[in-house]
Amino acid sequence: MAHRLSEDGKHNVLVLEYGGTDAGPFIQMPAALSYPMNMRRYDWGFMSEPEPGLGGRRLVVPRGKVIGGSSSINGMVYVRGHARDFDHWAESGAAGWGYADVLRYFKRMENWHDGNHGGDPDWRGTNGPLHVTRGPRANPLYQAFVDAGAQAGFELTDDYNGQKQEGFGPMEQTVWQGRRWSAANAYLKPALKRPNLDLLRCFARRIVIENGRGVGVEIERGGKIETVHAAREVIVAASSINSPKLLMLSGIGPAAHLAEHGIDVIADRPGVGQNLQDHLELYIQQACIQPITLYKHWNLWGKALAGAQWLFFKTGLGASNQFESAAFIRSRAGIDYPDIQFHFLPIAIRYDGKAAAEGHGFQAHVGPMRSNSRGAVTLKSADPKADPSIVFNYMSDPQDWVDFRHCIRITREIFAQPAFDPYRGKEILPGANVQSDDELDAHIRAHAESAYHPCGTCKMGKADDPMAVVDPECRVIGVEGLRVADSSIFPRITNGNLNAPSIMVGEKASDHILGRPLRPADNAEPWINPRWRETDR
Fold it and tell me: Known catalytic residue: 453?
């Protein structure tokens, strides 16, 4: 938004950012992705409250505290979502956000580089600031995963971000010339060269609202509290955790909850902080009997060599996030579009960089995409520096357990296909002894992890929807001159990783803010296989 709002030179834009620079290999080297999301220098360090459905475990909730936000600490996986996701948004009250409406914004933001390797360029953008590429897929395990999916009876897709999401195929990443291509690299840094855009490093305490209008932001910097004033509008894009927190600290939220903390109520919006959603996933891990996995580089010398190659040439293993094959499939008959996602990795490892087994292995990250479980972000205190309370209520819907068991069993079926015969060793996780529903449930409870896709806490909808926080132009309902534009406004979580649809929100919101005519709807119709309405696969 900073880029788009300042590009015509007519408006002065001030970006408030608490975090620091994104310089250095921990952020810029794609293969180092596990480091920044575990460093308080770059991450807010949020934790969920004990989750009842996960045996009382508290899960980490990484959110970027650095320019570029969470796009500077994420896994760099690029997934738009399915067309039906956005049609659901429109049907639920976010008029003008159907797939035909948002497709042009996806195209406007993309600089897609893989038109010669599959997919349909008519569905993709090639002149935008956000570079989207594919990894080299040099390791044979990437192709084995795709081949195994076909052998198990699933579809293939050349481009899951194009006409057809469904199927097994290559995964895309926001990496360009060996570097993480975050929102900071794509949008903010070029825009900061303009005289009408400034970046102010400070801590945002609350939005200043006078006579029902957002007129500025109370900030803290250098140990002093002051107010910066907005001549036109205040736009909140602080994440699905910090955006509702900031609204509530400013008197916008559930009246009773605000009163508990002594906060004067300016707009009673019960939906602020509610509707919290996320993707949970499991790592299904298999030992590899050939020494071809990334484990052979998982030592001090291997990491040093990869780091040096990246540092001097921006090539080699350090230049990819290693998520280079993926799949989107349906869990059962009657599902209109895929509801299970796979990320494949040629190593058995966790996001925090800890290997689960001493030896060669590979894994699939798998999980359901559209759980009905809902959580909330609430205040623990009226102190702006206090962390909020985050409760996802993971696995609180009975269907979650059915879907996760299916995820485990279908992944085992895929790994059992002939394509993996030359590589397959023993199952590491869950382990061959985990078979019954009760055993699978115990494993899920103990091992399910967040995919780090929180969203939905400032839901977009109709003004008369009591749970809606913003209208379809991203304006906070009940307050003038204030908007929210980030993943918090998603009415429902999208199919896949959230970086791409979050950036799309910024692109489209900028046209609403500037009062520009919206880009015309695209009448392209996504590919739908009608047999999926009647069969299991």
Answer: yes
